[in-house]
Structures
1.
Amino acid sequence: MRTGAARDHVGYFHETAFYRDDDDFLALVVPFLEEGLRAGEPTLVACGAANERLLRAALSDVRGVTFLPGADQYARPTEAILNYRRMFADHAAAGVAQIRVIGDVPHPGTGAPWDWWARYEAAANRVFGEFPLWGLCPYDLRTTPAEVVDDVLRTHPHVARPDGQHLANPGFDPFGRWPAWRPHPLQSRPPRVELLDPSPAEARRAVERVCDGVALGEDERDDIVYAASEAVTNGLCHGKPPVRLRVWADAARVVVAVTDGGPGPEDPLVGLVPTEDSASGGLGLWIAHRTCRDVAMTHDEEGYTIRFTAGVL
Amino acid sequence: MRTAGVLDAVRGLGLHDHVCWPYDDPADFRRRAVEFLADGLALGQRAWYVADSDDEVMRGHLDELPGAAEALERGALQLHPIGETYRSGQVVTPADQVAAYAAATDQALADGYTGLRVAAEATPMVRTEASLEAFCRYEHQVDRYMAGRPFAAMCAYDRHELSEEAIGNLACMHPASGPDAAPFRLYATSASEVALAGELDLDSRERFPAALRRAGLRPIGGELVLDASELDFIDHRALFALAREGLRTGSEVVLRTALSSAARLVELLGVPGVRVEAA
């Protein structure tokens, strides 16, 4: 039987919480972990280094807690999903009643791009839905930007408070809209290259030419060329004309945006998990999410845009 | 070493070369056929001109070939109306047709030539879907033969009569082709070894699996080895097509390529039964 606030819940109990100082953080998390440990539930911590130090000092006994280095677990959402699903499946196969996880999801306040993590938070309800899982995603209001808080409130069906209350979130609407678009700083300039209706091969050559003047590793270069090729392929196969390729660059980074006139993919999970269905083009976007530094999507008057970054953010 | 890649001319090709030459202008085709056959005669190969015409007209096509009359006289140059060359009628039987050219190559060698060279206007052989399918299969089988024996061919196709898709399906089974014919090429580098070159992306999504099927690659020692040293791009769809080919033939596919991205994709996606080796 599951314990705590998720007692009668089936599947993933996805909860967020907000804190303004270390005391609030510990008031939220320590009881969550200790309750799990007392019940013998697998209890996982994937926090940033500072929060992990706080927890190790505050917990009376850390045996039984699995600490995952947060920087590794949350390097990118595709890998977080793959790693978590592997761990959860092992625990579920062992017949546990509940798994508890607390994780620091990265955002611009911690130096990470947000778009794909916002989509991760929305997708988590589905991609972990089959597991008897209680996931707590605490956000530090000292560093979390307001639009991130908006997305977090939209994507979590439950909210915990430092005073110990667990509330249903009336604002839960995970796929009500896509994350707010943040233009990349380079996008304030005219693009180095703009192509209308390129073939995938033409798109690759255009991105390769721009990469020539940029300090990128060979893999980084291959990855963004591949991402551009796949995005144009998807635009041609699943989107609506015109398909536009735009490329920006400075000495240390390349930004590629591909826009088509269509509504974009319907499934918000696209790119975060592999799809077997070749009609969705999902595998190409999954590869891009696993290789590029940042992948963002938006819908505006031009249609659907997907953007990739290589090099420094 | 056979000539491979996209060519803008047919001059200078060797004893084993196999080029697909789609053309818009029949006069352009004839001029290139003359160049191709003249090179063959200079290399000591017997030269065949194969087209859908009678002797008189075909003779006229070769007016510009230096020494044509004398070469025709002594049998170094021969005219073959297409119906006579491809005896099996409208749909070629690949093995029979390869055997016919093998016999003609042997005869040329027996007659003191260095081999056989054919310039063929082959459009009549691919006018229906069934005949096109059979001819694509034949193109790979004869390519294997040519890689090992002194037989060279220029296969010309009329762009006005054939769709771009049909031309591409034919061109990708040749080591060399004219411009804008096919984005990739699957061809023999010896009687038992196969190479994959060019770019495999959206343009090849259906054509590449079809080309693999038509080639009917045979594993050796449980491996299907592809020399992909001239491969410029491969997407995950093409890698999965290779994986299916491995499954179909009960073999491991070995892709020898300088593209580090191919190895990364295979690892990232866990493409089953495909091993990438650095070329």
2.
Amino acid sequence: MTHNLAGGLDVGSCTTKSVVVDNQGNILGWHVLYSGTDFEVASNVAWKEALLSAGISSCDSIHVFSTGYGRNSVKFASKTMTEISCHARGCLHYFKGPMTIVDIGGQDNKIIKIDNNGVRTSFKMNRKCAAGTGAFLEEMAVRLRVPLEKLDQLASQADGEVTLGSYCTVFSGTEVLEKIKSGAALDHIVKGLFHSVVKRILEMDTLTDKVVITGGVIEHNPFLIDLLKTHIPNEIVTPPHPQIMGALGAALYALQENYQT
Amino acid sequence: MTDQLKHLRKPIAATSQMKKLMAAHFLELDEAQKTGRQKIAWCTSVGPAELLHAMGFLVYYPENHGALLGATRMATEVIPLANAVGYSPDICSYLTADVGSYLKGLTPLTKAYGIQSVPKADILVYNTNQCRDVQDWFSFYAREWNVPIIGIHTHRNIGKVEDFHVTDIVLQMKAMIPVLEAVSGAKFDIDRLREVVDLSLQCTRLWRRVLECGAAIPAPLTFFDATIHMAPAVVLRGKPEAVEYYKLLISELEDRIRLKEGAVKNERHRLYWDGMPVWGKLRELSDQFYQLKTNVVASTYCNSWIFDAFDPKTPFESMARAYTELFIVRDESFKESYMDNWIKNFSIDGVIFHDAKTCPNNSNDRYSMPQRMAKRLSIPTLVIHGDLNDLRCYSEEQTRTNIEAFVEQLDQKVP
């Protein structure tokens, strides 16, 4: 097993992310693809693509950890860890504690507290409902017949917004239909949806100290940060490529184990 | 349990004796129902069982049946039948599972002991110390069978148990005697009550010792073991066989302690469980903790059958005090102080609070107790959401990930 490289796979419900790091933890290559229905295939493809982007041809000797909902589907991973630990580890690569990490994922949101020693002190995940996650925005984009990638632009250009609930994706969908019928502008509705995501985060837990936002939803919809800033006075930051923080964290844990074995 | 884990774990040998006792308990009730040889009283799990035994009743505990419905996963199948006659899915899922199973004509006792139905009550006796739902539960059967229902209404949110609390409960218990005499046909005998209270005292002292074995490092039993082995303390207290059983169990556990045989191999972390068990997921949770080398060594729930106050010299007063000193009826300050003591004495690394949707009285996370505890004791806490019986309220993957992430958090502190 080489000590020079390590890898991480984050097999989420929506997308699979892969990262290759060098012995300093620098990202050499990464890849993101839709997880689809076969997590094993997705993880194989994502890993090969990450190696390709890093210019590495042979992967046999690289230590890989996996995380995420489908973490147990990664057959070549030597260890699995939860996405809670891996997101925290990824963020600690860029920022020092104390901080609150907010991860907005495909089907779950996480709020993770890190103290000033870099030790995780608590965490919360959404419990049963996926309102306020990536799946929520995907569902709403379909209802509005708007491409997912256009949402951020629409929300950021809006000069007003409609008020929508944050309690349930289905209820919010009904509210959206009512707004359409009453003639609300499309961009106002999309901004209302973004606010719904922010409200969901705010009701999950306290957001103390520096707030670090991660996840695919932020990667593709950075306007959410502007909206969150209107609610809390904290410093709000994002790492480069917030979508791959879980995979990076898994890779960094694998790297750490390289040096312990 | 996976086959691999079965091989790794050393089973508790006393379990076979417990199974015999439980079979005898249910078969005796079944026989009494069929022959009418002895009257049957239904009693809530922390109801005045000693008084009922002293009056000559066989005592049946429907909460135990509720737990069996949960553990066998029949509960989720039969709860909708209770909902269909008007019992809300939001109320106690022991109640809805039990009533649902009655309406469907099913019981886990059939598969376990060949018994066709739960024993019909001649009288129903409740104590609201667990919750108010028990009186509604028993009222269903009182209407169904046209039998008397009597109960004790316990004070709630108690700080220090005062004399007036005890006096009130004593009066309520004594007021039951004429009704019990009329149903049983026996005269109340204070000396017989003293004998039963003495047996309950012996049982509860031994049960405390069983649970205190969990303080050993490594612990010789888990919370999941205790939820099974508490059965005699619940349904056989006041009877000599419960006393003999716990002597046997303690002997085995103390051997394990001497040999440093942990129930979880290579125990790394020690947890406290607050709230109800998730009966339908005992095995999965037990297996997960085993694989994580983490032992849940203490719990509020299993401690609920420790009744230190029993005293045969003052049977009524001591029963009243014992059933009022319960954790579940105490105020927040008492509960916090109580848990702090167990957490310190059992070298606990973290606390899991189970928020059971249909059991608010046993869900102590709802007024920020976990957050206060984490700050006060510098100990991590985790809230998992589920239910005692209704698995529709339980998200398996979310719970597994939360527990795994919690143990990873504890791992941060292991050098």
3.
Amino acid sequence: MAEVTLRKLNKRFDGFHAVKDVDLDIRDREFVVLVGPSGCGKTTTLRMIAGLEAVSDGEIRIDDSVVNEVPPMDRDIAMVFQNYALYPHMSVAANMAFGLKMRKFERSEIDQRIRRAAGILGIESLLDRKPRQLSGGQRQRVALGRAIVRDPKVFLFDEPLSNLDAKLRVQMRVELKKLHERLAVTSVYVTHDQVEAMTLGDRVVVMKDGVVQQVGEPLTLYNNPANRFVAGFIGSPAMNFADVTLRESNGRMAAEADGLRIELPPELAARARAHTGAKAILGIRPENIHVATAGDAPEHCFDAGIEVVEQLGSEILLDTRVGPALFVASIEPTLQVRPHDKLRLALRPERLHLFDAQSEQAI
Amino acid sequence: MIEGALWRRWVFYNIPLALFVFVLLFPFYWMIITSFRPDGELYRPWNAVNYMPFWTNHPTLEHFRYLFEETDFGRWMVNTMFIAATSTLISLFCGVLAGYALARLNFPWAGSLGTLIFITYLVPQTLLFIPLAEIIRDFRLGDSPWSLILTYPTFLIPFCTWLMMGYFKAIPKELEECARIDGASRWKAMLYIVIPVAVPGILSSGIIAFTLSWNEFIYALVFLSSPQEKTVAVGVTSELIRGDVFFWGSLMAGALLGSVPVAIVYSFFVEHYVSGLTGSVKG
């Protein structure tokens, strides 16, 4: 049971401003994911919460007490590291017991907690082994177990799945989600993988260059990205962007580029009107583009030259050239197309995004 | 492994290896055989009919008897053991702490301090013994084991520090961070996590430090003078070479017995030692 609050949090290394004015309220029992490209300050932020990095400026509160100066051991947190950081000279059971021994728990209590955690994670049979005798997935579970037995106020995860192979990663992701539902402990999770962020997070914090770009529930980020960076970072394959100019003719707003003219739907047009004549960036996700049919309004259709066809089985990803821009479209797997074909595509106008060309903020 | 024709295996692998092994082991063989040969054979001229330098048909323990009965060899062994073990322990204690501090604690000049310590290791003992001799005299430590126990660390501590610094740096920082989150203070994290993980490194530097002080010659020669205070290396060479007379049999017997403890130490820890030198820490 804990809330974590970050207020104007800053971290400066020698001449490098790694984390800039991060404000964040993590609610009790919430699973918050910090996501961003490498070097965006997400891990540094997590390490400051853990107490492993000193805070340059600002405030970290766990519940109501400011913990800036509290050493890691007194913060009542548990952390799972990317390389698991299992103590190599101790058995699995001793690894899990270490934190409890340091806190002077009774032997019986320690045993009971280890058995419970091992039961939750299905590692009862591994308790006597040394870490080097375990597979990657098993080490991961032991690292989780070591965090669970402590029954801490807050769990911190630093890219815990990135050392696992793709299949195991998906499996552990599901287990982590189940685990969080079962334990309901406030969790902060750092990853560079937006899929992990989307699937695990109650809320997702997108960071870039030490600055929080947007905080929101996964779908909010997906449907209403605050800026071009968030739009491009969240979602796979990534959103398509095209440099356009906003023009008004006959009272209707349109985004224009060479060989592309898309009329904006009323709601977006209303917001875009203030930017008439200005440059902007048009964004549309691959799954919101489809092969044009008779039912599509001509003002939402455009011609595309196919450059690459990626058949994924469940869908086809088409890399197409639209005027000066490259668009990826996700279309029905049954379509028969080849590179260099011409195709008429249509987009769903209500799914269009517009970003200011200078500030890159959503219009 | 060498690929290809059989002759290539012989020319590039088997023969060079055999030569190497021969060159390496021959002095030991020479030492062993000499210590068991009677004086009559040892001093036989090379052109005598029954001259047989590499073998003996009359092995004798006479040289060993001489060593123990006519010289203070037993005493020298005890001295050397005490001096080497004590100075190794002192150096390990300082080296582990200093190496940890240089590898892990952030303080200004940590990097340059590390290099500086290494440079002190490079100052040759053959120069350093001159000022040290003066210090030993001023502290009235001459002719006592403490003159060596306190001076050997001058080269052993930099050595251990440097080795341990490298070893600590190879241990993932997360281990310690994890321990500190788990509720350990920095001191406890070092005691319960870092040092146990560093045991191979500590053993390696301990073995090398022990060997260095066991074999040390110049300080022992300068700082000790009475026969019963001497170490093996100095005792054997100073008491068994009288003027231009070499007591070859006893000399070799002394050398042989003198190398036994080091050989035992090595073979006992060889497993840890090898993994320490190759620095394998896996999470």
4.
Amino acid sequence: MTAATRPGLGRMAYLAFCTLVFVFLVAPILVIVPLSFNAEPYFTFTEGMLRLDPDAWSLRWYREIIENEAWTGSLVNSMVIGVSATVIATVLGTLAALGLANPAVPARRAIMGILISPMVTPVIIAAAGMFFFYSGLGLGQTHLGIILAHAALGVPFVVVTVTATLAAYDPNLTRAAASLGAGPWTTFRRVQFPLIAPGVISGALFAFAVSFDEVVVVLFMGGVDQRTIPRQMWSGIREQISPAILAVATFLIAFAALLLLTVEWLRRRGRA
Amino acid sequence: MKVPVAPERRAQLRALGLVAPLLIFIGVTFIAPLATMLTRSVHDPVVADALPETLALLEAWDGTGTPPEAVYAAAARELERAAAERTVGQVAGRVNRVQGGLRSVVTGTARELEDLDRGPWREAMTAIDDAWADPATWHAIRTTGERFTARHYLNAVDLQRLPDGSVASQPEERRIYLRLFWRTLMVGGVITLLCLLLGYPIAHLIARSPPHRANLLLVLVLVPFWTSLLVRTTAWIVLLQTQGVLNDILVATGLVSDDGRLAMVYNMTGTIVAMTHVLLPFMVLPLYSVMRGIPSTHMNAAASLGATPLQAFLRVYWPQSLPGVGAGALLVFILAIGYYITPALVGGSDGQLISNMIAYHMQTSLNWGLAAALGGVLLAGVLVLYALYDRLVGVERMGLG
């Protein structure tokens, strides 16, 4: 007991180390935000910025991305592809998780292994295979091809999240509803779904985030008409790196924070 | 006894009916593409389709000296047809991969054959290019003519088939893939270790914090988890490049001179730093979920029994946290060895991993068979680790802690 209460050197070092790790996790992302307001086309803080000289700060990169059709078009593509892939992944993933919650399902473990495999398969292999396969079906360079591919990549997150929520679901509630005369569909709609909804929504947000951040499949399968935001950033980083990318990145950080807070809120609600 | 079986059977069927749509969907949109790619790694019909008669006649050739005139006649006819059908470029590319320098021989000969309509073909072809008098050329054609072939896999592990059918190492300068696989495993190992080193203490801190603070700290771990991978990679370029923030700080504080700025990105350092950052949450989350279940009374009990904090940690806490260590380390390692985006953007030339080589053969060299074989080897490795993960942790607890 004494060792724990005395703030010894070891404990100080431990806390200092932990602080550094948290800085390592978060600081690189936060650095992007002020740099996106740089008036100069540099990727570092100019002297003027450090002096807080208002002339050294500007919104020019934000203006640039809003006026640039390549960026606005890629936002539209990202949203169309992301939302469509999410709908497919969420519906199919939730149904499958409901089925898998039944312990009587044969080969449950093997099925789970197949359904979750897109999560661990190196994306380059998946993208290469999809390039051959989807081109053969005439789905190369189409929105539909990328939507299907993204749905497959996002579905494991839905299965995992909904399965976790269902583990906390008390099957007696289903029996109680049935004993009160509710049919299976009514029971699902009125009892089970409201209780697992937070997990379903979390899974959907995960699936959306996967699609919204996916670049390799788009690189292999997408044409000019399927350029998404990550695809646009990819060429930005590889070809003409400009602080406009930092402005886009700042948007994406804000968006990620929003998604994260929503999921955390849902998680706590789901547990309560 | 018969009555209760029926409803259970029905429930089972209903459950399967719910799972089936997704199983079919994943089968078509994901598993079938993987199967297509794996097929390509062993199946390559281009040369066999373009030169069927030549290959059939070559069967009878004993492999020494030049083949008989009939082979030349068939080759001349089929090469001319391939030129007309515009498949000669694909044939030439494949032959060239077995025997360097033959691309222009094949395409050039095919072009000149269009102006010839009479044999003897052996003299005619040898006159166009004397490579046609070299048995190695015919060995190369015979090798690429195999419809089903192991040569891509042999190539992927730095082996080749010699003309006499035996398997041998590639020449020194062409042995690159095993080294790259090895480098990928090493980088994966280093990143896994770094993630464990950085992640273990903070997972412990979060697990021991009161709920309110634990939630706040968890959000800090989850911020990078949710932030776009491209944003995080951009962030590291901004921080680490020679004119970047970190170098500016080092110069401003006098730790580094202005012309001695450190090269921290577009090399292996960049790959390791950025990937550690990207994968750290995948280590922290499983560690945290295991550590949360370790009662704090255990450490107190060890201390009250006279253990020093180090002894208590090594004998009591560490063994109990091992499931989390195993889950986190496996997950990080699996994700690391398949990584593509981060090394491609910040790896420079020496920070590339096996995935980047697959992308190179897919997009630049267009050697799709080899790309598929390299992918097949990588996929086999990942699947073994995935099965191990399933045994130890269960795949349904993947990633999210």
